[in-house]
Amino acid sequence: MNLDVRGYRGVVRDLTGLLDEMKGFPCTVQLMDARAVAGREHAIHGAIHALKAFERGQNISSDMGIEICLRVAGMRQISRTIELLGIKEGEMEICAVLVDCGDEVIKFLDSIFERDDGVLEPDEEYLRRIYDLGGEAETVGVGEALLERTTMLTVA
């Protein structure tokens, strides 16, 4: 298994067209709002939990990309997860999670977005607000609290 997490900046002009193009790749390409991800480790942690959920038959969604989003968000509600992590038309900071993808996917993403791993740096105040983090974030930190939510989703 090959797992890659990349940061991008760019403008999504045609969301439906972009999603349709990505479905044509023989791998999982999941684009998320980078602001809602607490860094590379958070994205990798969520992706690994999604892959393991599929292996165990404990996946929430039948789609690996959606499962990655659910695990990153640490929640079971697909609509709420898409609201938090989904990409939208317009200017975006994007966290791309690539599972077993070849160079053609990277070339495609590099051709439409500007590579910038800086977008993966977490904005802790924003993350506290959107994930409604309370005392847990005070105790262990925002990133660790979100990793714990991902792990607890597997246990629940």
UniProtKB/TrEMBL annotation:
<protein>
    <recommendedName>
        <fullName>KEOPS complex subunit Cgi121</fullName>
    </recommendedName>
</protein>
<dbReference type="InterPro" id="IPR036504">
    <property type="entry name" value="CGI121/TPRKB_sf"/>
</dbReference>
<comment type="similarity">
    <text>Belongs to the CGI121/TPRKB family.</text>
</comment>
<dbReference type="InterPro" id="IPR013926">
    <property type="entry name" value="CGI121/TPRKB"/>
</dbReference>
<dbReference type="Pfam" id="PF08617">
    <property type="entry name" value="CGI-121"/>
</dbReference>
